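ok, trying the design again with the full structure, not the truncated one.
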């Protein structure tokens, strides 16, 4: 399988993640992609090719143009306000305040557009987030022109990013942008299968009232886990999208036997939908050694489910999402891809 990547992703070098009341070194670090790329070369998965620029139009087909402007200018606005640390939201529109206007002040803007405080914006964020989208769209181009599967080694991840919100380490929703681009290029139905440990709240929201993009997610029940306020099984879509959003919420500590039974159910639903393209939001934070996940998958389990995904026999685009056990992230992510190719 071919991999697509772009070194501009390494421009995101945040030094601060708000966690447990402290600023820690961010879990979503540049070394994550180095480990995956090293493993791809080690096992000979296939070539790693560069990404081509796709511009802002495909991003604006999914995200609010004012939000895109905000991500572009947030760091400069923050610096202009005289702040020396990284840009972190500290105040939010909440129940019984207003959210029908965007404040002009940078602190107000940050809270308006942030869905969580752990994710800081810094000098390289805009360029890296755009590169991540270009990777996804270049990998999509390959799937569409050849029918072969492809891997977009995206970073930063995307599935928490909504129409006009960033957070959970995500800025632009790579999978949603690729799904929309595939629709515009002629695919009738696209399925997004999100296997990251966390619920893909952003992807769900973007397609919630649509039946042309099916969103299916396996994740830790949000009652117990980030993103906390979305991802329950009774969220099934709205209007024309009713029935086209499927949340498989699993308890903390879920092991592979339970997880893979749920994956089989999810894949059977995708098969019934008969999509022209399957986009896999590939988070490997389901690994037993993940520092923020609680699931119990071992490295061989990733190979096993990669093989099962190939059984769907659909054009497939893999896009990297989460996974924070840096020492094993390459083994686990590449096991899925190698299992698929087997
Ligand atoms: N102190 C993705 O996997 N909360 N994002 C972490 C630990 C944020 C995960 C709490 C988790 C975001 C793409
Ligand atoms: Zn995750």
């Amino acid at each position: 399988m071919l991999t697509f990547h772009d070194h501009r992703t390494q421009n995101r070098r945040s030094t601060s993640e708000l966690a447990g009341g402290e600023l820690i070194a961010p879990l979503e670090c540049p070394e994550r992609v180095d480990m995956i790329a090293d493993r791809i070369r080690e096992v000979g998965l296939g070539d790693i090719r560069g990404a081509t620029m796709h511009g802002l139009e495909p991003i604006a087909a999914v995200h609010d143009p004012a939000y895109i402007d905000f991500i572009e200018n947030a760091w400069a606005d923050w610096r202009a306000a005289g702040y020396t640390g990284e840009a972190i939201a500290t105040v939010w529109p909440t129940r019984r305040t207003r959210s029908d206007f965007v404040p002009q002040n940078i602190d107000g803007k940050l809270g308006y557009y942030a869905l969580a405080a752990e994710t800081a914006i810094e000098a390289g964020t805009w360029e890296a987030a755009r590169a991540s989208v270009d990777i996804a769209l270049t990998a999509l181009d390959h799937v569409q022109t050849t029918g072969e599967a492809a891997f977009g080694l995206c970073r930063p991840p995307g599935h928490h990013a909504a129409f006009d919100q960033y957070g959970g380490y995500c800025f632009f929703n790579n999978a949603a942008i690729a799904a929309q681009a595939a629709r515009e290029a002629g695919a009738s139905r696209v399925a997004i299968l999100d296997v990251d440990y966390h619920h893909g709240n952003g992807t769900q929201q973007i397609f919630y009232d649509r039946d042309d993009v099916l969103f299916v997610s396996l994740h830790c029940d949000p009652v117990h886990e980030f993103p906390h306020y979305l991802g329950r099984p009774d969220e099934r879509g709205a209007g024309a999208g009713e029935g086209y959003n499927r949340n498989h919420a699993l308890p903390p500590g879920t092991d592979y036997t339970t997880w893979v039974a749920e994956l089989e159910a999810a894949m059977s639903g995708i098969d019934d939908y008969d999509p022209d393209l399957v986009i896999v939001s590939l988070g490997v934070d389901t690994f037993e050694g993940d520092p923020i996940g609680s699931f119990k998958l071992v490295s061989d389990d990733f190979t096993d489910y990669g093989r099962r995904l190939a059984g769907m026999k659909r054009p497939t685009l893999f896009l990297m999402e989460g996974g924070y056990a840096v020492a094993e992230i390459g083994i686990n992510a590449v096991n899925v891809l190698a299992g698929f190719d087997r």
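Keeping the full-length input from now on. The longest helix spans residues 125-146.
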